[in-house]
Write a structure and sequence with these properties.
Layout lengths: L1 E5 L3 H12 L3 E5 L11 E3 L5 E3 L5 E2 L3 H10 L5 E3 L3 E5 L7 E5 L7 H9 L6 H16 L1 H7 L5 H7 L4 H16 L8 H13 L6 E4 L3 H15 L3 E3 L4 E6 L5 E6 L8 E3 L3 E4 L3 H7 L8 H4 L9 E8 L10 E2 L5 E6 H4 L10 E6 L10 H15 L12 E9 L24 E3 L12 H22 L19
Parallel strand pairs: 1-2, 1-14, 2-10, 7-16, 14-20
Antiparallel strand pairs: 3-4, 5-9, 6-9, 7-8, 11-12, 12-13, 15-18, 15-19, 16-17, 17-18
Length: about 475
């Protein structure tokens, strides 16, 4: 059975991978000339990679870790020490650490907080415990109910001071959804904190040993094609064609470089496109359907990623860093954290500018200059004196619509992977799954889509006693 999938990001490729495991033949159609979607990367004229974002893997990503194991590439994750490191704006050039000891959860997290005396006073530690511990004990049902509040509103209800929010949670919310605590839904932070605190290695971080396109997406393509599937780049979807009954007749594909348009037909169709693109591609007859109308409640958040190459080492820290800058979100010296980008003599900083809504339309040069001004505060010793660090080159990658913007109330608009159209399914981190807008959410959504297709086939053929029932892909989140 053929399944046409529009989009070769993590959701589309994961969906195709699990479909091949179930005996289907997926055809993945990617509009751009690069794999990966929101984790895409490119090589410049010097052969250096630059990416759409700073992609960090967590111990609390069971589906991603299972996928890497199934592909035989789990050794490509470079695990870092279990710590979280924050810049201290009041002491430029210094850091504050939360070091997690080798203890069971949540004890390791509690000890990490108690040991930190740079960012949190004892009064603030008590405030934090009074707010977070009861929320963790009340379970996911309670966490889900907090989608009506921003995280700032929720913290205020718990009696947590503004100082604690400024010290920790601005950095955390920007790293999770690229917006501030007064915008982000409380469900996002509380879901992440719940998983980080309840799993011993939940907040432990890893970096891929090279570009996501080459080291993660290409193995997925190889797995799919080795089992009879296809993955095509430069294959943009032009229109979703319908039968008279409203089901999908085919994908009308745009011909490039003077080639004629053509129709890709299959037994089942999947959109693994971002929600903003899916809304544009939605056929008119479907727009009256309540299921698809809910998509109007979702939109992507703008993100800007910068990669800067310098003439010297700025830091030897091998870890993700939380800048606590009003402009920058998180950053890392990729020459330390990533084997494929390693350089013992020069730094290559990768930084996320967030919130980006006021900067997405500005020029690369304007974005660069404001970023360099922030770096002077983070690394004062390297950008002052007679011999300041020199920028050798840079890349700015703008994503006007990234993961869905998780403001309060968005949960009710997130669709299931199965739609009212019998031969059409959705995949993407915006679809309903417990990991929200993340790489883990994208992988899990693809797996759930494959399951839904298999289950739909089972229902459709339940009267055929000779049918071989495919086994659904394992959902590591529920194992």
């Amino acid at each position: 059975m053929r399944v046409a999938i529009a989009g070769a990001g993590l959701a589309g490729l994961s969906c195709a991978k699990y479909l091949t495991d179930l005996g289907y033949t997926p055809i993945v159609l990617e509009s751009r000339d690069v794999l990966g979607g929101l984790v895409a990367a490119w090589q410049d004229a010097d052969g250096d990679w630059y990416e759409t974002g700073l992609h960090v893997f967590f111990g609390a990503y069971p589906n991603m870790l299972q996928l890497l194991k199934e592909l035989g590439i789990e050794d490509r994750l470079q695990w870092k020490k279990h710590t979280m490191i924050f810049n201290q704006p009041e002491k430029p050039g210094t850091y504050s650490r939360f070091d997690f000891p080798n203890l069971p959860a949540p004890l390791n997290g509690i000890v990490a907080i108690l040991r930190n005396n740079d960012m949190l006073s004892w009064r603030e530690k008590i405030e934090l415990a009074k707010g977070l511990v009861p929320a963790m004990l009340r379970g996911q049902k309670y966490v889900d109910s907090t989608d009506q509040y921003t995280f700032s509103q929720w913290l205020k209800q718990q009696g947590v001071s503004e100082d604690v929010q400024q010290d920790i949670f601005i950095a955390a919310s920007k790293s999770l959804n690229f917006i501030n605590p007064d915008e982000i839904s409380a469900v996002v932070l509380l879901t992440a904190l719940s998983r980080f605190l309840q799993q011993k290695d939940g907040s432990k971080m890893a970096f891929l040993d090279g570009s996501p396109t080459e080291r993660l997406c290409q193995p997925l393509v190889d797995y799919i094609t080795d089992r009879g599937g296809e993955v095509r780049i430069n294959a943009p979807l032009k229109e979703i064609l319908l039968n008279e009954d409203g089901t999908v007749k085919g994908f009308l594909m745009r011909g490039l470089n003077g080639a004629a348009d053509y129709i890709e037909t299959a037994d089942v169709y999947v959109s693994a496109m971002p929600v903003d693109v899916m809304k544009v591609m939605l056929p008119n007859p479907w727009k009256e359907n309540d299921f698809f109308q809910k998509l109007e409640g979702l939109e992507g958040v703008p993100v800007i990623n910068l990669q800067l190459w310098f003439d010297r080492k700025l830091t030897d820290i091998d870890q993700l860093l939380f800048s606590r800058s009003p402009l920058l979100s998180v950053y890392a010296d990729m020459s330390n954290t990533c084997r494929g980008y390693a350089n013992p003599e020069r730094s290559m900083l990768e930084l996320v500018l967030a919130p980006a809504k006021d900067w997405i339309a500005k020029s690369d040069e304007e974005i660069l200059q404001v970023t360099l001004a922030e770096l002077q505060k983070l690394f004062p010793s390297h950008f002052s004196g007679d011999n300041p660090a020199k920028l050798l080159k840079y890349h700015v990658v703008k994503t006007p619509r990234s993961v869905y913007k998780a403001t309060p109330g968005r949960q009710q608009y997130r669709p299931s992977q199965q739609t009212p159209i019998s031969n059409f399914f959705l995949s993407g981190s915006y679809t309903m799954q417990p990991y929200l807008g993340s790489m883990e959410g994208a992988v899990l959504s693809g797996k759930l889509t494959a399951q839904a297709i298999a289950e739909g086939r089972l229902v459709a053929n339940s009267s055929n006693l000779q049918m071989q029932t495919p086994q659904p892909a394992t959902n590591a989140a529920t194992v």
